[in-house]
Every structure is written in structure tokens, then in C-alpha cells.
Amino acid sequence: MKGIYLLIIGLEKEMIKEVGSLGDVMFQRGNYIYIGSAQNSLEARVARHMSSQKKKHWHIDYFLEEAEIKEVLAFELGSDKECELAQMLDNKFTRVWDFGCSDCSCDSHLFFTEKDLGELLDSIFEEIDVEPIKGSELEIQ
């Protein structure tokens, strides 16, 4: 499968973490949404994110050393929709500046909230009018 995915991530305690070229980044305790794209094998990309045994390549790899993926949502959309969806998230959540967007003109691909994610994600799904595929439905090996 190819498409766009959202990682729903929980962070139990506030932290400052060195994140590659971004340097030290302050992360608040709460919930995060990361948006990514995988136009070859979305399942393999998600499996990589979920693995604890990986070389740090992307900003999200540093964050996931301390944070926990709670849910994965995937959409069969082209890569051109990744930044469009990031803009929608930017309008609803607090951005973590410059995170995960070094290959585009977005301000961020990681967003923070202290609120319950279920209700907020439902409103995003309504806006993009595409049903998500839950992580449990993906064929992740």
C-alpha cells in the first residue's frame, strides 16, 4: 500500500531532546500527531517507526525513543496530500516548529495537544472526507 499516515503518539513526561539538526527541542507532556508519507510501502515505513531497533534517520526517530505510538491511521492518498493534511493539522493543533518537514515548505509535520485526540481527529476526517485505515488493519510484519 502507498499513502499518507498519521502516528498518534503519547508522551508521559515533559522533556528536552536533541533531535538531529534541530538541536534541543522541548516537548510537553501530552499527545502528538505526526504526519508522514510512504509512496512505496506504507506498511514497512510504519513497521520501522514502531521498531526500537533502528538507525536514527528522521526527526521522528529521536522523538520515538521516549514517546509511544498509540495508534496508526493510514490514508490511500498521494504524497501531494501530505502537506495539505499537515496544514489542516496546523490549524487545529500546536505545531512543533520545523519538525519532520525538511523536504517541504510546511512549518511542521508534528503537532501537539493536551486534548482528547478522538474528537479532534474525527473533525479532521470529516474535512478530508477519506476513511482512515487503522494500524490494526495494515499488514505490518
Q: What does this entry show, briefly?
A:
By secondary structure, the protein is of the alpha+beta class. The chain has helices spanning 42-50, 59-63, 80-92, 117-128, and strands at 3-11, 15-18, 24-27, 30-38, 68-75, 94-95, 110-113, 133-134. The protein contains 4 helices and 8 strands.
Would you write up a description of this structure?
- This protein has 141 residues and is an alpha+beta fold.
- The chain has one domain.
- 28% of the residues lie in helices and 30% in strands.
- The protein has four helices and eight strands, in the order E-E-E-E-H-H-E-H-E-E-H-E.
The number of domains is 1
- End-to-end C-alpha gap: 13 Å
What does the overall shape look like?
globular
Order of helices and strands: EEEEHHEHEEHE
Strand order of the largest sheet: 6-7-4-1-5-8
Computed over alpha carbons, the radius of gyration is 14 Å
Please state the average pLDDT score. 88
What is the makeup of the main sheet? 6 strands, antiparallel
Helix count, DSSP H or I runs of 4 or more residues: 4
The total strand number stands at 8
Strand residue content: 25-35%
Q: State the share of residues found in helices, binned by percent.
A: 25-40%
- Name the structural class: alpha+beta
